[in-house]
Structure formats: structure tokens, C-alpha cells
């Protein structure tokens, strides 16, 4: 299945768009961007040159994915969430050589109106609540909320809150999938 692009979208020559990807109204994809298969870019999305987007990524309306951002497979970016790439911007001071790289790992969710300050890594299946401001690395499966964001719990791959303590050693079962998760010394992993 080929990709589908709305007539109002601007796809610069050289951009790589995967099979089955849908690009909606008023989107701009820059020439060196790489976008995987089966993605969806909502209305008014911008994708910079130094951007890599994996497969099955959903980017909702009004999101700008600036240079130095990588989104791995199955990432969800909620409406109007924000990425940055310069830590201390000033209009009169050029800092394009100071971009800080941001990595959003497989399966992570970023809620509506959240802000991801550049230079952080969001772990696999992390869940960032709507409106949160993330300014430090996030553990895999962590549930983050607030300004600045703090960890308030754990989430399953299925997107359900896990009944795990913040620290210690424990197990919990996802109520939706039945999968068992194990917390060991502050790290959550899917039990094999």
C-alpha cells in the first residue's frame, strides 16, 4: 500500500516516506526527513530535516518534530505536544550547532500539550501525561505527570496503569492484556 498525502501538504524533494503512511492537511516534511511505514501525520504537523520517525508512529495535529528528534516504532505524539532542540534559545544568538538530541523509544506515549525539553530519552512504553513538562530522562514504562514532570507510577505496554510500587521488588498483571510485569530495583520489565 502506497503512502497517502493530502494535496495541501508540502513534501520536500528527498524526504523518505514509508509505505502506508498517511499525511494530512497542511503538513510540511523537510527534504532529509525519514518517516517509516504505516505512520499518521495529522493536520499542521512539521517534520524537520534531521528527524527519524519509525514505523506505526501517530503524530496528532499541531505537532512540530524539530531537528535532532528520533521517534522509534509505535510512538504516539498527542495533539499540540511540543519538542524543543535548543536548551537556551535566544533570537539574536545562533545555536544550530548546539542542538541536543531527543530520543523517544519504542511504544512511548506523549499526551496532549506536553513539552519535551531537548536532550532527554523517553524509555520504552513510557507514558507522559497531558500537559507534563519533561526535563530529564524517563524510565521505560514510567508514568510521568506535572510541571516539571515527576514519576507517579508505571504503565503497561497496553496503556494500563500497573499496581506496582515506585521502588522495591514486585510483580503486577496488566488488567487488559494479562501480561505480567516485574519491578526489580527500580526497573520494570515484561516477565518472560
Describe the fold and architecture.
It is built from no helices and 26 strands. It is globular and about 50 Å long. A hairpin with a 4-residue loop joins strand 21 (142-145) and strand 22 (150-155). Helices cover 0% and strands 35% of the residues. The two termini are 34 Å apart. The chain has 192 residues and is mainly β. It has a ten-stranded mixed β-sheet, with no helix packed on it. Strands 3-6-9-12-15-18 form a six-stranded parallel β-sheet, with no helix packed on it.
Spatial gap, N to C terminus: 34 Å
DSSP strand content: 35-45%
The low-confidence parts are none
Characterize the largest beta sheet: strand count, sense, and whether it forms a barrel.
10 strands, mixed
Percent of residues in helices comes to under 10%
Structural class category: mainly beta
Form type: globular
Amino acid at each position: 500500500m502506497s503512502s497517502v498525502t493530502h494535496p495541501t501538504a508540502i513534501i520536500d524533494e528527498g524526504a523518505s516516506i514509508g509505505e502506508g503512511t498517511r499525511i494530512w492537511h497542511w503538513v510540511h516534511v523537510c527534504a532529509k526527513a525519514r518517516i517509516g511505514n504505516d505512520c499518521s501525520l495529522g493536520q499542521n504537523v512539521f517534520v524537520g530535516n534531521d528527524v527519524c520517525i519509525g514505523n506505526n508512529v501517530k503524530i496528532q495535529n499541531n505537532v512540530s518534530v524539530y531537528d535532532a528528534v528520533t521517534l522509534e516504532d509505535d510512538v504516539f505524539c498527542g495533539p499540540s505536544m511540543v519538542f524543543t532542540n535548543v536548551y537556551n534559545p535566544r533570537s539574536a544568538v545562533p545555536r544550530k550547532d548546539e542542538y541536543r538530541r531527543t530520543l523517544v523509544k519504542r511504544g512511548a506515549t506523549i499526551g496532549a500539550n506536553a513539552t519535551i525539553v531537548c536532550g532527554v530519552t523517553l524509555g520504552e512504553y513510557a507514558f507522559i501525561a497531558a500537559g507534563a513538562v519533561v526535563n530529564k530522562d524517563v524510565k521505560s514504562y514510567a508514568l510521568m505527570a506535572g510541571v516539571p514532570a515527576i514519576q507517579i507510577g508505571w504503565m503497561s505496554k497496553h496503556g494500563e496503569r500497573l499496581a506496582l510500587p515506585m521502588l522495591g521488588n514486585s510483580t503486577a498483571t496488566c488488567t487488559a492484556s494479562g501480561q505480567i510485569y516485574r519491578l526489580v530495583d527500580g526497573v520494570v520489565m515484561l516477565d518472560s
